[in-house]
Amino acid sequence: MAGRRALRSARAAQAYNGAVREQLSELQRARMLAAMFDVVAEKGAANVTVAHVVERSGVSRRTFYENFEDREDCLLASFERALTLASDRVIPAFESEKGWRDRIRAGLVAFLAFCDEQPSVAQMLVCESQASGPRVVQRRTEILTRLTRIVDQGGNEGKAENISPLAAEGTIGGVLAVIQARLLQAKRKPLIALTNELMSMIVLPCFGAPAARRELRRATPAFSSEAIERTQLGDPFKEAGMRLTYRTVRVLMAIAEHPGASNRLIADTAEITDQGQISKLLGRLHRAGMVTNTGLGAGKGAPNAWTLTPSGRQVADSIRMHTEGSQNHGAHER
Predict the structure, then answer these.
(1) How many domains does the chain have?
(2) DSSP track, 211-269
(3) Cys-Cys with 233: which of 18, 34, 158, 178 at CB 3.0–4.6 Å?
(4) 144-162 pLDDT, tens digit each
């Protein structure tokens, strides 16, 4: 019986160990993708090197090649990440409406808001994808083909006659050209303000000038200045001034799993046998404002009781999000 319990305990510890290593790997990958977004926005995709990504992200060149085959593979992963972030906003908005025009408008509003909130990601998706290598170009072409089919459905609903087979493709190209030009402006106005003009462009071939003019007269969606890039991308430890390490992640997630845990429980959960090392890691997390000790402490006759601060909970949630996001992305690819 004791042997079985020991075996179960060892298996559970092994599974936990693997989960934390995966979380750390995904955080490192997220850090490199965030760096790629930044350097692409600054230098252009054609000019980005592995050295730029390594320097900006703070990881080693070895870590880069453990995650990506080469520069183009990292660019493709960045494009896929940008596409996932945009799709998570656009698809639910599109599917929430009925009728072609309402669906197109809802999807367009969601995409323009996304571009306003995450301009560096939008630049990768819209502006730099054609210069990111043949694999990204092929993926971009697949997405544009899908969008063209959706826009082409408006011709059936509008019962338009004598429309060129290239009308939908030209419409998509024109809309993207306008968005790209605005994204590359040094002092850009909110893209959401372009909603009516772009909708007018989209409906004109299918529904004619009267419908296009009606789109111009519709209320313009409100602009939100809230930026969300920091919560979805990059290294959550960076702002706290801490270096991302395997043991740091394990200790933080152990506290998230066991609020009010003592040093010993954290050490057992994180599988760190050196109590001095646990004390140092907890001290660093405490100084960074991620954990707090609600116990009396060993010096006062009671064990420590560590819990996450609001900042620590936000980082723990970010760690889970990166891991779950990667798993979901992998599931979509399969």
Answers:
(1) 2
(2) HHHHHHTSPPPPP-----HHHHSS-TTTTTT----HHHHHHHHHHHHSTTB-HHHHHHH
(3) 34
(4) 999 999 998 876 665 556 5
